[in-house]
Known about the structure:
B: seven-stranded mixed β-sheet
Amino acid sequence: MKTFEYxxxxxxxEALDMLKKHDGNVSILNxxxxxxxxxxxxxxxxxxxxxxxKIPGLDQIQVDEDRITIGATVLLNDxxxxxxxxxxxxxxxxxxLSVGSKQxxxxxxxxxxxCNASPLADTATPLLALNADVHIYGEEGIKxxxxxxxxxxxxxxxxxxxxxxxxxxFKQDPEALGIFTKMSRRKEVDLSTVCSTVxxxxxxxxxxxxxVAPTPVRLAxxxxxxxxxxxxxxxxxxxxxxxxxxxxxxSDIRASEEYRREMVGVMLRHALSEWL
Amino acid sequence: xxxxxxxVKRVDGVKKVTGSLKxxxxxxxxxxxxxxxxxxxxxxxxxLNINFEKALAIKGVKDIITGDLFTKxxxxxLEDKNFLAVGKVRYRGEAVVAVCAITEEIAQSALEFIEIExxxxxxxxxxKDAMKPDSPLVHPDLGEYKWAPIFFPVPGxxxxxxxxxxKGDAKKAFETVDFVVENDFYVPHVQxxxxxxxxxxxxxxxxxxxTVWASCQSPYAxxxxxxxxFDIPLNRLRVLSPAVGGGFGSKAxxxxxxxxxxxxxxxxxxxxxxxxSRQDEFENAYVRQGLHARIKTGVNKDGKIIAVENExxxxxxxxxxxGVNIAKAAGYAxxxxxxxxxxxxxxxxxxxNHPVGGPYRGFGMSEIHFGIEQNLDMVAEQIGIDPVExxxxxxxxxGGVTGTGEVVEVAxxxxxxxxxxxxxxxxxxxxxxxxxxxxxxxxxxxxxxxxMPTNAASSAIIKLNEDGTAHLLVSAQDIGQGSDTxxxxxxxxxxxxxxxxxxxRTGDTDQTPYEWQTVASRITYSTGxxxxxxxxxxxxxxxxxxxxxxxxxxRDLELRDGYVVSKxxxxxKVAISELALGLTFEDGSGIHGPIIGRGAFIPPNxxxxxxxxxxxxxxxxxxxxxAQAIEVEVDLETGAVKVLKVVSVFDVGxxxxxxxxxxxxxxxxxxxxxxxxxxxxxxxDGKVLNPSFVDYKIPTADDMPEMxxxxxxxxxxxxxxxxxxxxxxxxxxxxxxxxxxxYAATGIRLNTMPLTAERVLNAIKAKDND
Lengths: 276, 770
């Protein structure tokens, strides 16, 4: 690993000043479970690393009547084991607890998982399906962007070099039923070959998938097809076919494009069949 | 027996569990220097020019070397490799230039300032293609190399060893049989992934005495290899292996030690260190060779196998100094644990521009059994008998004859098979609780002999202390298998003192006595026998002195709980502590001096087989037989295979330590499941695509099934207390048993490992479309 300068601001303002001072040429260190690995393997060689873990207030899961906000430094284990999340949004809890190992989750954060912008980020699909918003602090103060607009490409987001994500929030929807599915080569400590979250809220369906496109995606066509329809096995068959066609996966060493397409259908079928 | 056969706790357990055990990488010495290695980006290329002046000018860089400095080739069985590439590179990742600096960071950062000009050569990336006459040659000068006379390289080709086995007349026999079943199988390269990566430190004293600390399985073999490579007499070369964090074969022989020695010579009194990263471990340590196998079985209606014909093509990678012996071992085991009259086998070790193949738990057996045991199930199906029956008919029984023509006296295979069949309830159908999943049970047998020279030697020393405790010195290395504990138990049993009273020391060629190598599942058998002899020697000395002291004949004395005791008059005894330094008389005079027991062992009467036919009366020391029965559940929608239950039964001769042995058998199942379902070194144009745990998966605890471990004990006549080796054999049947279980569940045959979900699903779909 190359040598680098280490900064540790204790307020958002200080953090922003540091980013501005160094012209944004800074890697933000949160849990470090992606960044440090990339640095050690030489994929990333930042000159300055700014650790945001000492900024107070970012490590909270705030439960309001109508919204839940996950702070930037909330650990995946804390998210996955949070009582409210576990009871009302078990699919989000499961996604959080499916990342890496217990040791990794004691360092890794949900927001880091999102900002890393991997196509297969496990916490992205439940948050996408929950219509979550990303809160970004920058020179103009806080702005809010829908998560679906946050991802740009593999490992690329709309985040500017002088911006910091302070948290992610979503509107409370306790009636929503959701199912998270992760398919991987091995049961534990593995990356998703494909992952998905399917949410049913009233007559609406929201479906998101990971590892099937350059970013985690919502399956708009399939959702539109399903919304308002009564579930029958014919409808499910049709939806699965649509979903398999709607995704744009690639072949890599984990799986082929064809396998991923087929698994998208299998995951959707399993989820929808729960509500038959 | 008091200690042998009981679950004595691991003697190295506390240190390992608390983390206080010091491995080589934990050693910090003053004035240490660090080495980094510039590696080839090409699988096959001529080195035209190397310019390292810029790197050498960096502050803190002490020296830089290239292969030109030491052009003498070395190798265990075939001298084909250099520690740094000479003239050309033969695999991607081959060490080309080494930098020595005062810190690891400086050494590492200097690498990018080294410029190497290559002329890229066409790469050989398929072992079958490598055998074609028009293939580029990885080692054009093979004919000039030196090799041990039991191997058969073919100069002018990529074949580094062509082993042949010719028993009976297979060609003719095939004309008479009722059925012939012939199939191709492929087993990819895998890596050992020991938790501790390879690491070594070398330091030369001002007077030219070289000390090497290495994480290695075989300190004496490393000493020998380094002595030859660098012309250092054995008495001036000390190899220490203080602890080994897993080996599985990858730390047999030498890998990185030689890179350090030129620096150690140049900077006397300064220790020089190199530790492999995990990526290095995947790309530049040994890997298990890939195997293309073709297996042809001729059988009559009654189920009797009349003939087999096998072709094994081993993808040995860039250097085959060790791999040639895997091709040989696979060749002489190619009939499997079956009594077959006509056997015709060609086993080729082939050079390619792939990572270097080397010893891996099983030494070829897991790979060939993947084909042998599946082909056997197909044979059974063809003639309409079940998989157990075909094995009962053909399986080795006492009095049977092996593929190499040896008459077998001890073979517990049938007992193992029966227990496995019972425990898995082979004939009871089990149903999945899910409508989209199916279950099936499969069975496979396996055998292995220690793959070692006919005269592989062991030795042991026992020193008694004046308080009645003892030190046991051997150079068998505890690489996790528990040998420290079992050796201690053997000494404790013979000397009749508790294991806590014995301290075992290993891994120091200056202090602990000769051991050929910690490989081949031979330690309990061979070193164990040397320890047994050493303890008996110490015992004899004690009895000699005691008979003078007690005044009773030696033949009526025995060791019991720290005393020499009369068998007839139990109150007549003398503590061994009183005799440990010799016998002292009432007048103050003494005789004999300290008790030091000496034990040495070479397996008796193991003789080379015939070079052409491969046949011999006693070409290997023993065969270990076993069987596994496995139940799997296959997800028909995703192709995912879940191993539900594994029954593993082996004839180990004598269970020395039940708990340790169960652990070893369970570890073998884990490794077997890993290689069967997940593991593959993915190679493209010579490049390893998955050189990390991100995409090279080994099983976690969560992937492990219910395991039932059983043993059969038909004693090995020359083994200590009847023990024979089982470390490697334990893994051999796992992959084919899983494949056979998948067939039972789904009706699909998978001839290529690993049996990934996608591969299984594709096969299910292909079958449905038929």
